[in-house]
């Protein structure tokens, strides 16, 4: 009896631990199915609005109705590329057959340093665009979908991104597609500069077409859940206190910085198509 009791004492914690791990694994396995079912139910039951449809890259008039050239704050950011583009300058931001292309070209003259931290020397001219509509999760618009197809460069020194960042402050930030000089896609959620969730996925041939998507849903008065997908496959859910905080939607081809250096000497291209932004409206 004592031997059996001792055996039970030893085995019981292992059994409980095993059950807990199994339950956790089952929850993770069920999460994408639950998310998909929940999203379908929301879209069926609520009033769904398309904010930007898949045609905004079909013509310059459609593009300029939905998108602005450059970053929201101007031409510079945290890499070595300075963004150029306007309704009369399509050297680095241009459309063809429903595809938006951003082209990074290395320059051979001194153009000074970026005006943005960490103030790197400018070595490229490239392109960035941002949506005129902000993503804002609140009681009126509790669910959002943001997605786009990309052919993304992954060569050392290339830093393409499809991301959301705070209008009034940084953070918040959500990176839907971000490559940093290799085939790993980073899907990050910044709650503070040091409180970050990252899901890193190796993507086979990033230069082929792949779809990157988030579903953002309000879960309580302060928090949202951001579900990340690649090619329709659920990758992760991150939570952040982003209710009531508007986001810019940005597509850009930055260079070097976090993607390493030296960057490529040849032109580098980011191609985008079928961008879509939608939301539910409660009132």
Automatic annotation (TrEMBL):
SUPFAM superfamilies cross-referenced by the UniProt entry: Concanavalin A-like lectins/glucanases (SSF49899)
GO BP of this protein: glucan catabolic process
Domain GH16: 46-283
Signal sequence, renumbered to the chain: 1-23
Alphabetical keyword list: Hydrolase, Signal
InterPro entries: Beta-glucanase-like, ConA-like_dom_sf, Glycosyl_Hydrlase_16
Single GO MF descriptor: hydrolase activity, hydrolyzing O-glycosyl compounds
Database matches in PANTHER family: GLYCOSIDASE C21B10.07-RELATED, GLYCOSYL HYDROLASE-RELATED
Family of this protein: Belongs to the glycosyl hydrolase 16 family.
Protein name: Glycosyl hydrolase family 16
Gene source species: Chitinophaga japonensis (Flexibacter japonensis)
